[in-house]
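Suppose a colleague, Dr. K., hands you the sequence of a protein chain of 271 amino acids and asks what its three-dimensional shape might be. Before reaching for any lab equipment, you can write down a predicted structure in token form. Begin with the sequence itself:
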Amino acid sequence: MPENVLEVRGLRRTFGAVRAVDDVSFALPAGGSLGVVGESGSGKTTTARIVVGLERADGGEVLVRGRSRTARDRTGGRVGGRAARLARAREVQMVFQDPYLSLDPRTGVGAALRETLRLHFPGRDHTRRVTELLDQVGLGTRAAEALPRQLSGGQRQRVAIARALAVEPAVLVLDEAVAALDVSVQAQILNLLADIREQTGIGYLFITHDLGVVRCVTDEIVVMRHGTVVEQGRTEEVLAAPGHPYTRLLLESVPRPGWDPQAIAVARRAL
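The predicted structure, expressed as tokens, is then:
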């Protein structure tokens, strides 16, 4: 069995009286692809933000390559200085849903990539690496001088992926990373991600509500509802024969011939 590049153990996070994440555990093998699915409010994005380090967990542990990312000193701060924080950031990178909001509108593509590379690898000439990254995500060198507003949505998402790959992370978290794109562009980005995973062996954590995306690009799936994991397993097995009523409800909610939204609403209230 491959070594787990990411392990999440008993994560908990509350906001007031709301348990956003309640004892969530899963593992991502090296080079694997894991989907975390659920409706809005299920806790999947909060879980992802804890994994990346954008949210603090109230309890539980996140390990990358066997090392804890949640260790804290006695004052409650993270262990280590700036170098340690940058090292943690390199381990796990995130691609957000809206690439336009995650890119500086005043900074060209090449400059954005060089800025990331200079932060993590100072004192080097990054010209060649910028070209490699643009080629890796299917953008030519002409895109290096473009501003985000001069690019299409799919091109901007390719830039966001290139920036995340610049630091050679072990895990790439994709939070609804294709949800804002046209269907044809979604397919292009998903194919690109599949190629990158094959070339690099990076592990993917997909956060999405789209079961079609999960079916295409993940090996395993975690289904969340109200902050808890209700079902998990091999993607093809869970989607072919879901064991939990909520998973069945998610599958039945996908529009198709003969789709009955009233029956689904009744089933949702019963659940």
